[in-house]
Amino acid sequence: MFNHIFFEHPAGGYKKIFETVEELNEPLPATVTGCIPSFIKGSLLRLGPGLFEVGSEPFYHLFDGQALMHKFDFSNGQVTYFRKFVKTDAYVRAMTEKIPARTSSPAFSHFVTFGRFFTYFKGVEVTDNCLVNVYPIGEDFYAVTETNFITKVNVETLKKVDMCDYVNINGVTAHPHIEKDGTVYNIGNCMGKGAALAYNIIRIPPKQKDKSDPIEKSKVVVQFPSAERFKPSYVHSFGMTENYFVFVETPVKIHLLKFLSAWSIRGSNYMDCFESDEEKGTWIHIARKHPGEYIDYKFRTAAMGLFHHINCYEDSGFIVVDLCAWKGFEFVYNYLWLANLRANWEEVKRNAMIAPQPEVRRYVLPLDPYREEQGKNLVSLPYTTTTATMRADGTIWLEPEVLFSGPRQAFEFPQINYKMNNRKNYTYAYALGLNHFIPDRICKLNVRTKETWVWQEPDSYPSEPLFVQNPDGVDEDDGVIMTIVVSPGAQRPTFCLILNAKDLSEIARAEVDIMSPVTFHGMYKP
User: Fold this and answer.
1) Binding of Fe cation: at which residues (predicted)?
2) Domain count for the chain
């Protein structure tokens, strides 16, 4: 059950996960306690920043650091740990010039997703610093950030790929949806009709019989309009059901002209190029998948920040959308400067007190919003308190059901049993618990009953939990949770933790005598 005793961190051990480390020349054997399940025989891959300064020049934001790939390998109960910097152009340039590349600023390395747009302006370069996630396309694996560049990272190869060469897209998110046959869907903004910015959903087909590169056959499926012609919203993820795409357009906007001005002024603050207006609220768009067709329903709700969708599914003429929201219109990344995260505990808490507050929310979108008269709740699903109401101006106002809320306690970096329950009515979600933005617990949530479970240990800082299904399992939560934990005061401070997905009890851990920094996203590769 949920533990209401939130840990305090007065010793500040969390500061260690925001420090530079060195890569390894060879794998380190891990010390295993417990019994690793026999079906775990592959690799846990994770990406995050590993270099936080170049020479005497520091990086300033959490998403500035150079990409470091971590790998725990599992074979016959034996475990090794390995890590290497991803030698992208951004990394090579930073190490050669001994100064942090300007294109690795938060706005470029993680926020800005319109690389092609900037190629029209002389001297503006877009980063390939792929520190956010790794996922499969065909038989290959790609490390990604949120620009147009993705990097193939197979065993001994490194290949930079520009998605602009294949589709009308200015950048792609680090959170695609992958179907069982290997088809990849993703979203990014683009130049749309009338030279206005828009958002394209792209499709990358599965592995090709002729062994050709699936990326070369990428296509645009459908286009969403932008609420503002020259101010695209920041996009981190999107939703997908069996038959529909869901795009949540938040009020966090990128002001392109301000951005170009900031580029020309050395020392300027890229965060000033983001605008957010509470009055604009949040627009939710839907489109059909087959064929790709935008549906002009005007779903609206209050202003919120959004990074991660949990799941979307269809039920009885409705689309259910579960996501990790941040209340209000302010951009959460304003609170992720390294100086804030490395501050003493009381200062960390003060900063989080004034930041947007996190909440797990469920929205329900009626697929036939005109069947009821104005002012009546259109949602008739019996298991949710969510409402949708047609207004006189033709907009459909949505009010969410809150599935989880705790003061300055975020349920973030969510995961589900993706193979079994993506796009389907489901019961369980898993997440990293952020305590005033400091990751210090693994959480499980029953989205039907709102029951919660927690794993936590003092002075231990886990990462995004990845669900791995037991091949012999029947239930949705028959499997394990895998996460990399850093415990700075321990003899072996980095370990891969394996938890029973049923109750988050510990099954095994594999420890190595080396410090590791924070990681963002990753995958289990069987």
Assistant:
1) 175, 236, 308, 521
2) 1
